[in-house]
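Q: What would this chain look like folded?
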Amino acid sequence: MKRSFLMLGLLLASAPACAAPVSLPLDEPTTVNGIVAVCTGIGSDSRQNPAWQSYSLKVEIAGKAGQYLGDEVVAVSQGGRELLSVDCGGPWLLFKLAPGAYRVTAESAGVKAESNAHVPASGQGRIILRFPAQGGTISAQHDEKAATGE
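A: My prediction, written as C-alpha cells:
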C-alpha cells in the first residue's frame, strides 16, 4: 500500500504542471519561459510597427467575417510539450521562436482553434486562427451591403 502511494507521488511530481497563462501587456515585448512574446494589433499604428518584423512567428486571431478578435489564451507547444501559454487582449501575437514545427492553440469565449505552425530559418511564419462563430457585425451598413451583394 505504501509503495503504491509512493509511486503515485513520484508520478504526480514528474508530470508537467499546467501553469496559468501569463497576461501580456499590449505592445510590450515580454519574456515567458525564455521566449519573447508580444500581444499587439490594436490600431494601424500598432500593426505597422516595424519592430514586429523581427519576430519569427505571427499568429492572427479572426472571427466569422474575418474581423480581428481579442481576449484569447494562446498556447505554443513543440513535440507535445507546452512551451508557453499567454493571455492576450489584442488580435496578434508575435513570438521569437527557433526555426521548426510548432502547434498553436487558442481559446476564446470557451471555443478552441488550433493549427500547426512552421517557423522558417529566416523571415516570419504566419498563421491565422479562425473562430467562425465569433465576432459581431462590422456595421449595419456593411451587413446590408453584404446581404445585397454590393
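The chain has one domain: 18-134.
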